[in-house]
Amino acid sequence: MAASRKPPLRAEALLAASLLTPALLLVAVLLLVPLLWLVWQSVRQDGGFTLAHYARLVTDPAYGATFLQTFRISAIVTLACVVLGFPVAWAAAESGPTLRALILALVVLPLWTSVLVRAYAWIIVLQRTGLVNSGLEALGLIHRPVILVNNEFGTIVATTHILMPFVVLPLYTTIRTIPREVLAAAASLGGTPAFVFTRVYLPLSLPGLLSGAALVCVLSLGFYITPELLGGGRTYTVSMLIARNIALYDEWGAASSVSVALLACIFLIFFLAGRIVPIDRIVGTR
Amino acid sequence: MADMTGPAPDGVSIRAVSKRYGTFAALDTVSLDVRKGEFLSILGPSGSGKSTLLGMLGGFVRPDSGTLWIDGRDVTLDAPHKRNIGIVFQNYALFPHLNVADNILFPLRARRVPKASWPERLRAALDMVELSGFAQRRITELSGGQRQRVALARAMIFEPTLILMDEPLSALDKQLRETMQIELKQLHARLAATIIYVTHDQREALTMSDRIAVMNKGRIVQLDTPIGLHDAPDNAFVAGFIGEATLLPVTRVGSHFVQLGDMVLATGRPVPVQGDLRLVLHPEKLALARQDDPLSGNRLRGTVTDTLFQGDSTRLFIRLASGERIAMRVSENHRERQHLSRPGDDVTLELHVQDTIVVPGGPG
Question: What is the CATH architecture of B236-360?
């Protein structure tokens, strides 16, 4: 039996491998090679080995400040996405099919619009004579326009909006997998709605929440256009630092070292996220 | 049934509850009294309304009309967490992110029971379901039967007045199911809690219950003890649902007599006057009559068409003189085997007058 079964299995494995080859090649050529090239460049100067680029990251306070601002923006954006995204995901998961389709469409539709367009749209909404300011003035809540854009606030608002789907969608998927019976059981066992939410609903949606948050956190760390357009020069993120090092100063070594450092930070975040919540064990089998 | 008097001072009283989903009547003016400490099963096919009734008791389904009372208190509009009911769900509904101990302690935590009493109660609960030593296990590390026990312990630790069970054994294999049936029955005796047990498995209901409410199409069609249901079904639906009865159309020829083909049979109970009548034939109630036996019951003539050896018994398929095919069971022992018939044999079957049951046909 086992002997007669082996050949088709091997053929299957071979087929799978051959089907994977193009994708693997693509990843290797377009991702691994440039990445290695990046690392190589970051330790080279004038044809020799150097750690000067990395030393500068530590010694030059401007670099530290840029990293700090980038991470601060990322943290605020992540928090905002989670806080604002949870009710949306919850509403989508708990409502009837029609309302659910509408909510999900509203979440997904912006993804089909260019980031550039959305960034400019936010400028229009938030500027001195924009929708928000004129609205607040009409209501008599303010007498002078509030500065909402060309600063960190504007960057955070636009980035949060752009990245919101990345937390809503995985969260929605996770919430949908919470068995209704488990929630019913929690209620029947004496759990008030608030108790059931904090003790059952939230812990069981944590995997989706965390993967969404990790995604938003990492994506926002690399945001370039949005802080460039909405920051008005007052927000200076790592991605802008990298671009300027190349475009303005032609410093590939410096740009590469910053990129590698950012990449290392991102890996660290994913690693920590996986450590804090062992996702596969939380979901468990029912 | 719908016009019962006021709610009982204890136990569960269901008064004329109805629930419609669109045009579908899931429950149609159902009334039921469950005595304190009783083990009552709700038995019915899927779609008969039994799960709706259970959901209503649990507080997850709001009745369109009617009231629910637990220990003399109107709970019709109470939220689930205010009802003090332990529910064991079909798929256990354990909390996958909590270990065994935290699952079982969940009701105490939710009810803000002082922590000092937890260890003792947890130990007692684990002992009760024979899971001592499993407190720190993750739910994913447990077998189906163990999960079932955790669900039981969790539903009982806060000593609810009422425990609802929604087909709790249906996910287990046959052997484990039978073991758990006995364990549940013993637990019930020890706890003296009222248990309402929903199942579609008539054998399970017959084994475990003090009384059974048989449901069909949103109504309770008969409420009786297991023996009562089995031996004295009120109607063709119950007769067909309980046991392995064959229902044969008969006509009334007297207050205690019916005619089947050219055979006249005496019945133990008065024959209903109106409607289509059905004779209820259980395989185990029939016996092969022998020449030397004194006449002691109704006699049916027929021809054996098939025999089926089933280990503990042999099943005979017989075509009656009136044309219908029925089944009967013959115990598999030496005495019976000597007389065992073969296909083609003409046989006379005996049916005791008290086992000759005639019910009105049609549902309800």
Answer: Beta Barrel (2.40)
